[in-house]
Amino acid sequence: MVDADWHDNAMVTMVHQGGFVRVRKRDLERLTTEVMQLRDFLPKVISRDVLEKVRQGHVVDVVKERIELEREQLQQDYLHLCSRLDAAHCECQREREEKLALRQQLWVSQEQLQQQAEFCTTLGVASCTLLWSVSSKEEVIKDILADRKAEAFLAVAAQTLESFVGQSLDREGKVEQQTSSQEMQFVLALAGIVTNIAAVTCGRDFLSSSAHMLLDTLMQLLGVMKPGVFSKLKVLMLMALYNVSISIKGLKYISESSCLLQLLPSLLQDSDGEVCHCALRLLQSLLLQNNEALPCVGPMLWDRLPLAHLQQLCSSRNPILRQAAEEMLDHLAALGGPWRDTLNGMDKKGPSQGSVTKPEKF
């Protein structure tokens, strides 16, 4: 009895010390036999439902562990997205502040640009108006042409006229003639300077040889401006072309433009009497001074000239316009061709004295 107790205590002591346990071979065999018996009899003792529940519990534990891992991953993703969201909010706030600052700078710049534009417009109007006034003297025109900046000035004048008329056409037909506006005065001054340059012999020669772009622009703009709109500007353009037509080179260049020849008949029917009168004078210059181009010019005008309207102008209350219309009909009848038969059937006054071609200044 004493030996058995000592043996049990020794075994317990060895287990607590973490060493090996000595077991008798007979006891180990008996333990193995009992384990095998439990394996055989356990399914008979425990029902299949219990075993299935145990298996399902194990599966649930595995699924739970996987879900826990996924939850931890989602939590990390959530924290990462929150961090990115905070960074995006900070970036958005910074960009919003920068945008507000840039908008403020843009507003200030626009105000400054508007002030500068108004100043430049005022300065341009004053300068061009003064230049228009002094350009009525031939000596001034010679001084202008003697400078190498004349071509650049005329190019700027052409671009300015084209831009002004183009912006007016973009207003969907709501064009209002604001003759007192600075822009209109600026454009009229430019056109007046060109007209006065063309009124001098050296100026006509210069325009005929070195300012074709300006002449083309004038003829083109006369075609796009609607009747009754910008009449003063039309008058200046027509008189500039008329002055250029006095020179041989200028007359030849203008006569070769089919655009102007197709345009003149419609200008003759403009509601403004001064525009109609200037168109008559230009047409007279083209028909009466250019015998070489008459065979080409005549056929283009035979079917376009509003002879009936010219006959009505002979009864106009405006004596200058009435005289110009009478002279035009007389000259057309003298030229012969298809006009003679038509004009012979109209009631006309006697032939008037031919007008002398003189340059016009404004």
Task: Write the SSE topology.
Layout: H1 2-16, H2 25-45, H3 48-134, H4 138-146, H5 150-169, H6 182-198, H7 201-210, H8 212-224, H9 231-245, H10 248-255, H11 258-267, H12 273-288, H13 294-302, H14 307-313, H15 319-335, H16 338-344
For the structure shown, list the relevant keywords.
single chain, about 350 residues, mainly alpha, Leucine-rich Repeat Variant, about 0% strand, disordered N terminus
What does this molecule look like?
The protein is mainly alpha-helical and 362 residues long. The protein has a domain at 135-344: Alpha Horseshoe (Leucine-rich Repeat Variant), CATH 1.25.10.10. Helix content is 78%, strand content 0%. It has 16 helices and no strands. The protein has helices spanning 2-16, 25-45, 48-134, 138-146, 150-169, 182-198, 201-210, 212-224, 231-245, 248-255, 258-267, 273-288, 294-302, 307-313, 319-335, 338-344. The longest helix is centred in the N-terminal third of the chain and has 87 residues, at 48-134. Mean pLDDT is 80; it is low at 1-16 and 347-356. This is Heat shock transcription factor 2 binding protein. Residues 343-362 are annotated as: Disordered. InterPro entries: ARM-like (IPR011989), ARM-type_fold (IPR016024), HSF2BP (IPR039584).
